[in-house]
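Bug #77: duplicate submission created two jobs. Keeping one. Sequence:
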Amino acid sequence: MALTLAGLAADRPLGLRVLTGDALLDRPIGWVHPTELTDPQAFLEGGELLLTTGLALDEGTSPAYVRRLVGAGVAGLGFGVGLSHDFVPRSLVSTAASVGLPVLEVPRETPFIAITRAVSRAVAADEYATTVRIGRAQQELTRTAVGKGGPAGVLRKLAKLVDGWVLLFDRTTVTEAAPASARAYGPSLREELERLRAGTRVVALDGQEVVLQTLDTSVRRVLAVGASLDTAGRHIVNTAVSVLSLALEQDRAQAAARQALRSGLLELLVGGQAELALRVLATTGGEPPESPWSVLVFAGAPAARRKLLGALENEPVFAARRGSSVVAIGPADVAAEAAARIGGLHGGLAGPVSTTDFAAGLEQAELAAQAALAEDKALVSAAEHAGRGLLSLIEPTVAQAFARGLLTPLREHDTTGRGDLETSLRCWLEHHGHWDVAAARLGVHRHTLRNRIRKVEELLGRDLDSPGVRAELWVALQA
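Kept job's structure:
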């Protein structure tokens, strides 16, 4: 921390006495400048402690002299007594008090060089502390970036180092925040982010200074730092910008490589080389899903497909790009629920299939996904899609008679208002018996749905665990 006037006045060996400006002694001293000029403004930058013996000053010239010093932005005035003046001119003290200029009386025994040395030592110590702080911060940020923390860890570390909050934007969308509550600042910065094309912009938000800095990445990203930044803080932010840029580009490159590998492994599965594909997946750190597999294919906008791949990254699901779709292998409910959360995706489901039947299962799932897209449905199963094809081969009157004969007990029960069994059965079959997904679609608790399906079995006298029974009921519901 820079030496202040108060700190200098507290240095007892110097023997300084404060004459004016007691409330302003927290001013930092940038440097010391001794001069006997009556107008030294041209030689000042502001923030100096000016030292003088008042050789050219008297009661008449002192007021104007003081005002010139205030105009030059000096931190304070040290007036040496015992040489040209036995005491500081009264008009200088009164004027300084009125305009807010701290005045320190320097005794005859204290040479100006002693004050200069004291300030010089403090400045050097402050600069050294700043250098050490910057160096340590650079090391911490770098270790975090190359370790397990990644970009999110860098943001948390930066927020701690500058004692503020940090946001990372992808264009105008917040992707990371430290602390998490800082996300609330995102909407307020959107207008400034739209104006910022490259470089740095400093804005005010709720009375706080916020630095916006673009990152050197292929995708337009911006770092926002809400903190009062000193010299070290600005250097630390610059380091974070460099480290984040590298980490984000490295993440992007690694993600692209992983996706390319997974797409290649998917093609091996399609080509009947499942053993090789699974061995490579296990070698590269992946966890092969247990077979037999459910195969899902999702179509949708590129952004939605990217989000789905990201959402399934840490799930027990193998997911890969194939053309303009995403293929997921593993627990059907995990992939279906992830797609439902993202929205805008249309999926097809086939299986369970063995490794030898994978290519056929994938083709069935792709056809079902096309049907889901055409009908604007979230998910269509291959069985459902095939059932519609079968229904087209049956005479409509025959199909309707079959449906009435099979579903009448449910429809009669529903007329009593004791439960929507036909709709519940349709939704449950449509979601392949997945209780949580079907219950969510119906807006009921899964236990309620289980009770309804048990009631269906009771009324129909059929076991819904049988694939044949399910197929018959599905055909009846389509008629």
